[in-house]
Amino acid sequence: MRKLKSWFGAGRAKPAAPDLPVDLLSDAFVADPAPTWAWLRDNAPLAPVKSGGYVMTRAADIKAAFTDARLGNAPSRFSMLAEKNRDRYVAADVAANIPPFLDKPRHVDMRKPLSAAFFDTFDGAEAWIGPLAEAHLARLAGQGPQDIITGFGRPFATQAMARFVGLDHDPAAIARATGALFKLFAPITDRAGFDDVNAGLEATRHYIAGAVAARHATPGPDLISHLIARGGLTDIEIGDHALLVLADGIENIEAAIAQVLIRLASDPDHLAALRAGEGDIAATVMEVLRLETPAQTIPRVVREAHERDGVQLTEGTPIFLALGSANRDPDLHPDPDRFDPTRDHSGVLMFGQGRHRCIGAPLGQMLVTQGARALVDRPFTLVTDPARITYHKRLGHRWPVDVLARID
Ligand code: HEM
After folding, report:
1. Where does the pLDDT of residue 187 fall: very low under 50, low under 70, confident under 90, or very high at 90 and above?
2. Gyration radius from the chain CA atoms
3. How many structural domains does the chain have?
4. Are 352 and 81 in contact (CB under 8 A)?
5. Distance (Å, rounded) from C-alpha 90 to C-alpha 195?
6. How far apart (Å, rounded) are the C-alpha atoms in residues 378 and 138?
7. Which CATH number is 387's domain given?
8. Contacts with 6 (C-beta within 8 Å, 6 or more apart), sequence order
9. I need a surface site. Which of 110, 211, 241, 303 has the fewest CB within 10 A?
10. Which Gene3D superfamilies match (predicted)?
11. Contact status, residue 265 vs residue 288, Cβ threshold 8 Å
């Protein structure tokens, strides 16, 4: 019944079976993960992954996993990032400070002040984010075909996040810092690569420490100042939180803004309705985030051995929760491949759910929505053929590479 609903109900061709273990970095998967997700949901909802571990694809299973105490976020005790290694490796020390790598009780201790300081900072952000988006887009007007990611989404998100966090607007230093943090989330494959991760994080901590010292001396309406004011965290913990927030607010945003542009360009009636003030830009953004979920998979680690879907899971096994699949699961979203901004978005999972749910979701939505609003307010033409858009080979993320557009 489930198969009939998802294959024929949505009017799609029957998806071809991927090779198992599934390669989440294969060219076909990176180009379009949706057919693989559809096949896995119907045939192997907990499937082995080529790089190790398993991927979970059904929305109901993923929602249950968010509250399953047998799955956690802390690196396995066999990992270089395990807490016991924090005195040996900067990478393990950073991981031991930031929520995505923590289980309770430390997760609660670190997330609570970060979440409180986030909302202190978020109040009033809309007043400057909208004009900032418009100013960045205006720079591209009349310039001929420009990459909307490096020309608009990235500089806009970088400047917005620098201001939000409380850093000087230095795009090159910020790119180095976010690059260093993202390496912490990639699988560690060799010693030289791991040395590189540690060196990058060491330099980044030094850079962020300068901003923390500056905010001690001159507080502002920014995240670092609010973290200092709330107290209870060391300066290193404040710096690591600031780095996490900075990094989380750039690539996902630039990717989502590019996806909104691609969608609006391919749906002139919807764009015309938005321009006429008849549609809801925020709902359009939510629907684009559902269909083109930037964080396709999020990692968990088996904390306690157990059996699941006929698979015996041992402690330390990575489990990838496929949010991109859950967001197209017909059991959760009827006719899931159809773009429909009016659908109920209350159950969508692009920001996760439960104790690790994205702290920055309201800011993420606001940044993308203000980027989208700027696009709606200006005539633009998509230059890149949508069928030729390529995606970064980044485990867990769906981020387009170049999206050329002309802004008038
Ligand atoms: C469209 C943009 C964004 C998307 C798609 C996104 C998505 C996500 C996802 C899927 C998670 C993991 C949830 C889990 O593991 O259960 C997450 C965690 C997180 N996000 Fe975002 N995010 C976005 C923007 C932001 C922004 C702007 C911030 C800045 C404040 C932010 C801060 C965080 C933090 C701090 C966490 C870790 C929460 C924890 O582990 O307790 N995100 N995000």
Report:
1. confident
2. 21
3. 1
4. no
5. 10
6. 9
7. 1.10.630.10
8. 12, 38, 41, 42, 330, 336
9. 303
10. Cytochrome P450
11. no
Task: Give nearest CA residue, ligand 1 atom 6.
Answer: 351
Nearest residue by C-alpha to atom 15 in ligand 1: 356
Which two structure tokens, joined as six digits, stand for 302?
Answer: 């088996």
Residue 150 structural domain: 2-407
d(CA 323, CA 341): 19
Task: Give yes or no for residue 149 CB within 6 A of ligand 1.
Answer: no
Q: Is 13 exposed, middle or buried (0-12, 13-18, 19+ CB in 10 A)?
A: exposed
pLDDT, residue 408, reads 92
For 155-177, give the DSSP string: HHHHHHHHHHHT----HHHHHHH
Parallel, antiparallel or unpaired: strands 318-322 and 297-302: antiparallel
Q: What is the pLDDT of residue 245?
A: 98
Distances (CA, A) of 98 to 51, 129, 187: 24, 26, 17
Q: Give the largest CA-CA distance in the chain.
A: 64
The rounded distance, in Å, linking the Cα atoms of 85 and 91 is: 9
> Backbone phi, then psi, for 382, in 5-degree steps?
-75, 125
- With a 6 Å cutoff on the Cβ, whether 293 touches ligand 1 is no
What is residue 289's three-state secondary structure?
A: helix
pLDDT in tens, 328-342: 999 999 999 999 999
Measured from the CB, is residue 300 less than 6 Å from ligand 1?
no
Q: How far is CA 62 from CA 67, 89, 329, 349, 359, in A?
A: 9, 32, 11, 9, 19
